[in-house]
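Researcher: Please predict.
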Amino acid sequence: MSTAPVLVERLGGVGTVRLNRPENLNALNLATKTALLEALRGVAADPGVRCVVLIGTGRAFSVGHDLREHVRQLADDGPEAVWATVPEHYNPIATVLHTMDKPVVAAVNGVAAGAGASLAFLADLRLVSASAGFNLAFAQIGLSCDTGCSWTLPRLVGPTKAMQLLYTGGTITAEESLRLGIATEVIPDAGFAQRVSDLAGQLAVGPTQAYAAMRQSVAYATHSSLPEALAYEADMMRRTGSTEDHQQAVDAFLAKRPPVFTGQQA
């Protein structure tokens, strides 16, 4: 396999972005963060990609920030230079994952810790291998949370549970993550790759513009009143109502046949 820190594969409308430092458990060093941001921007802008899958190579999804590089940078450049990575890398990565106009699936193939867990939380759906787990390790190394975790985690598990998980750290098993509402689905290891492929393929032939509108509507509603959310929904209905996919669905309904979605605007 390539030694590039991030690999991108486009196949059948699915753009797979793969963290590729298995010997370091896909820790996020500077090269990886830079490549990940570029990769995500690329698949977000590609109209041929209608579903994005984020996954890790090897036995980890990602253990988060590369602490070995971190220690070297602290010694060489000082803390201000080190923490520039948050606005320069982590924040833009989180923004692209959250705002792209297509479904995002986190395929959590192994441990997801720290910023690695935060990356998974930003996805719409989290498919979790039975042997995988999450670890909110920020407090254990004396740091606050990042990569959107303060925004995503309370929305997944509620603010009280989010604070407990952040304060105490520890491993959240796959089954516990399902019970808490973090995992969308827990899959036996042997069938994990196939299930990810099946779901991503299903989303990639779906009504992409409708999915994008749903993503935006849910995000908007988290900081809006009900009247504001209703007005936004009305705008999204007008937008999706003008797409080829909606017209295709209407025609298919009248013809009593399955629709074939293109994911394009009218």
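Model: The longest helix spans residues 30-45.
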